[in-house]
Amino acid sequence: MSTYEFLLIGHLLFVAVWVGSDVCLQMLALRARLAGPERTVQFLGDVEWIGLRLLNPAALLVVIFGVLLVIDQDAWEFSQFWVSAGLAMFLVSASVGAGFLGPEAGRLDRLAAERNASDPELQRRIGRIVLISRIELVLLVLVIADMVVKPGL
């Protein structure tokens, strides 16, 4: 196995883990919302647990393997649009995750401990965090499209 093949397998494996986990969480969010406010609140703890142990490490490994792929290949450079666009979209996703989704999930978990699960403010904020995470998933799909199409190459 060549270095390129090893790096590409690592990159694609962790893309599958990252995006697949996000898709799965969206489906579980839908199930939780349909099951009622109590399950929706319980789901917050699941999201935080999965995010810390699966999503964040997978996202970091995607970038590490991707950067190593660019370094390994003479045909690719960080100045190429598709590479810089992919890195920029990753930074947006990481910023949203670290700057809003993670902290807000923690705040909502604490708020849920203080209030009834059907509290309108709590449910409104849960709906907002789910919506933003869906937008972030669309961004990840765009990153995949960028990596496959390689615009500008």
User: What is the CA–CA distance across the termini?
Assistant: 26 Å
Helix content percent band:
over 70%
Number of domains: 1
Which H/E pattern describes the elements? Answer: HHHH
Q: Decide which structural class fits the backbone.
A: mainly alpha
Largest sheet: none
Shape: elongated
Number of strands: 0
Structure description:
The protein is mainly α and 153 residues long. Helices cover 87% and strands 0% of the residues. It has one domain (3-149). It is elongated, with a radius of gyration of 18 Å.
Q: How is this structure best summarized?
A:
The protein has 153 residues and is mainly alpha-helical.
Task: For the structure shown, list the relevant keywords.
153 residues, mainly alpha, 4 helices
List the SSEs and their pairings.
Layout lengths: L2 H33 L1 H36 L8 H34 L5 H30 L4
Helix pairs in contact: 1-2, 1-4, 2-3, 3-4
